[in-house]
Structure formats: C-alpha cells, structure tokens
Amino acid sequence: MSEDKYKEYQERRRKQSIANNPAKVEKIHKKGKLTAQERLQMLFDNGEYEETRPWRRNQCVAFDLYKKDPENEGVITSFGKVYGRRIYAFSQDADVMGGSVGEAHGEKICKAIDDAVKTGCPIVGINDASGARIQEGVAGLNGYCTIFGRTSVASGSVPQISIIAGTAAGGTAYAAALTDFIILAKSVGRMFITGPAVIKAVTGEEVTFDELGGAQVHGPKTGLAHFVAETEEEAIETAKTLLSFLPSNAKEKPPVYMCEDPVSRKVPEIRDIIPVEPNRSFDMLQLVQAVMDGRYFMEVQAQFAKNMIIGFGRIGGKTVGVVANQPRVLAGCIDIDAAWKAARFVRFCDSFNIPLLVFADCPGYLPGVNQEHNGIIRNGSKMLFAFSEATVPVIKIVVRKDYGGAYSAMCGKGMGADVVLSLPTGEIAVMGAGGAADIVFRKEIKAAEDPAAARAEFVREYEKEYLNPYRGAEYGIVDDIIEPEDLREKLAIHLEALEEKEIFTPYKKHSNIPL
What we know:
With 515 residues, the chain is an alpha/beta fold. 40% of the residues lie in helices and 18% in strands. The protein folds into 3 domains: 34-245, Alpha-Beta Complex (2-enoyl-CoA Hydratase, Chain A, domain 1); 269-431 and 468-497, Alpha-Beta Complex (2-enoyl-CoA Hydratase, Chain A, domain 1), CATH 3.90.226.10; 433-466, no CATH class. It has helices at 2-16, 22-30, 36-43, 103-119, 138-154, 171-177, 196-203, 209-213, 215-218, 232-245, 269-273, 284-291, 336-351, 369-373, 376-389, 404-409, 433-440, 442-447, 451-466, 470-475, 487-497; strands spanning 49-52, 75-82, 85-92, 123-129, 160-169, 181-185, 190-192, 227-229, 297-300, 308-315, 318-325, 356-362, 394-403, 419-422, 427-429, 480-481.
C-alpha cells in the first residue's frame, strides 16, 4: 500500500516538469520560444533552482475549472543563485491557459515577491501572459491587483527586473512597468494594454502586434524597455549582467569585484574626445567609457531620449551610476523625455546605495511651444527633485557647457553635489555669450557706431570673463579644476572619501515627487 503512495507521488512529481512532456516542449520550440522551465535554467547558475509551491492549484468551480489539470497554474516560481548570489524568480508558462493570471497564479507570484523581500534578495520575473483568467472572473482580477500591490511595496527594498519573453498583455504589462527594469526580447516580446482586435473593434484602427507593442515601440518611442535584446537568451544574459551591478537589497552596498584596471590609470584620450571648438559636438559616451574599469559601461535606455545617457559602470571594482548629457543629440539639451529618464534612474540609484557621477555639457532645457505645452516644467522638475532628495555620494564633472537651468538639473552644488570637478573646458554661466551680451550690453551695442562690431567685442569679453570654470571655483561652487587625463584617478579618490557619507533627512512618510 505504501509503495503505491510513493509511486503515485513520483508520477505526480514527474508530470510537474515541462521537460517530461515532449509534445509540449516541441510545440513551444516551434514557436521560436523557450519553455518556462528552460528560461529559469538559463537564468540560474548551473541551471539549478528550487521550485516553490509546485502543488498550488486554483479552486474555481466555474466552468468546472477545478476538474481540469492546469499543471503549474501558468507560472513556475523559484529561487536559486546568479553569480553566486541568491535571487527569486518566476517564469510564466503561456502554454497553460495562455499564461493567464488567476487566483493561484497571482498568489504564487506574490509569495515569491514576499520571500524575496523577507530574505533581502532581488526578484526577476519572466513575463509571458495574456492577461487575467476569464474563467475565474473577479478572482483573476484580484490576482493581478495583489501582484501590483506587492510589487509597489517591494519597490526600493529589493531590485525588481522584468524580462518580456512573449506577450505581456493587460495587467502583465502593468506588472512589469511597476518594476525597476524591463528587458524586452525583440524576437518574441510585445507589451500592450489592449490587443489589435480590441483596438480595431473600438477605434477602427488596424495595427499588428509588433507595431502596437514591439521593440521598435518600447525601445525608442515610449522608453518602457530599458534594454532591448535580440533573443530570449540575450535578454536573460542582460538580466544577469545587470544584477552584477546591483546590491541584493536596500540595506546593502553593491558587490565589489576584483579590478585589474588601476584607478590611477591616466585617460589622455579625453583631450582628443572633447573638441577645441566649444560649439562642436562630441560623443560623451566615449568619455564615460574612458574612465570606467576596463572601459566597460552598461548603458540603460540607450534607444530612448538619446540626448541623455544613463547607466552603470565600475571604478575600482565598485558600482557607479552615470547621468550624462549627450551633445551629439539636441546639443545635449534636456527635454521632457530626458528629464524623466534621468530622474527615475537617479531615484533608483539612491534607493540602492549606488554613487552617482554626473557629466555635464548642456546649454539648458530644450525651448519650444511643444515642450512647454507638454509639461517641461513638471517633467524638468523631476530631475531637480530626484537629485535634491538623493543621499548617495554625488560627484559632478563639468565637461563643457553648464548653463542656466541645466546647471541645477545636472546637480549643481546647491542641489546636493558633494564634489564638483571641472575640466579646463568647463563653462558655468547663466547663458551663452551671445545671449548674455545682447542683454547685459544692450544699450552699449545700440549706441555704438558699428553695432555688429561692438556686439562681437562684447561677446568676446563675456566669453573671456565668464565662460570658464575659474569664476565658479572662486565662488566655491566648483571644488577643483583638473587635467582631463587625471579624471579617473580623481573620481576614485573622491568616491573613496565619500564612501561612508551620511545625511540627515527630516521625518516623513514619503516624498511627493512632481509626477
């Protein structure tokens, strides 16, 4: 009798593994996709993980759903190690009722999030789900609601990463959007709230799945995808690389790695990267890469708001977050998208004890009626708020232009920058020389015998007197002016000095950022 019980257990256990269902595996592979199980094996070290709550089943009596065998309820939840550190993860199974979220499905994910928070571990969600399970009605909706609630509460406590490895429709899209980072697999990933059929029925518009929510939409247009990978495999590798930069939770600092690149390494190439002519553009990304360990920089949202660069690197084996203007795009001006992009990144780094390096070359906020009417004031203030609220070490480097509102937006001294360094090419001023001369010397220019020549002379005078870093250093808003080749070493020195920085903040439940 007992032998029968063991056989029954072994048979039930065997059926839980997708790998033991060749027909299902073949069906999924024909779609050009990995199984939910294969995705987790690819994520975890040596393909090993511990599945959690594999026996949980729905109790829905409607449509006799409880009589059916929905296998894993459309999601596998688990924990294991990535590069030797424990993480929690879930992987939705689109071949179980479309991966639809019901009560049990939602509970399994919520329990995984709870476990991650309790143990101080990151959580990775591999999303491939069609929406709420219609057969379960309000129980399915509640499944999503609980996921939204748990994800929001966990925000800022442990890093949360979403991989879009299939269709993320309706609530699945929102669940991913609430996490810290979204990695979209271009080959199979799509995100939208309502699908093409519903859109056509309601508005008459005809659109394909990819046109509606593919990589070409969420990479460059919406910025929803922080990373766009070509394949599922690349998406999973991207998640693992990203995790290597992050601490396990908000109480820890990021992991420190052995560094074979001396922090004293000189970077003379910076002189060649920055043009002599102040109005010529250059690639700020090259400068950022030059000072990082091994010249490696993991750019975030690379396809979106290209006038702003954000991402992770290391100096001396320690993680740093970078916010930098990109003068090659819109002359480095800050627009609505760039402000939102930078503000959210700053808040993430501050949540997880990641020091910030700010590279400034910006003539100001992007002017225009479209920008004003679409909320540049509200969105631009997000950057001001994020930097002012940050308690992590912040080092600003004035590379070239640091004018007007951009001076504050890129974390000027009064915004909380701990150290402000400037290259000799730095220019800190209210505005450029031409505009300033037209205002300051308006009367003199108008009264001159040759107004054009007089204006040119006043512009040169203003440039010589104000468009340099020396006046800022005299006022104490620039701490030091350094040689470009010393930049990496100086950053390492100041980062080490600020490592134990503490700052007093008044009591509050939470801040009220201008969303």
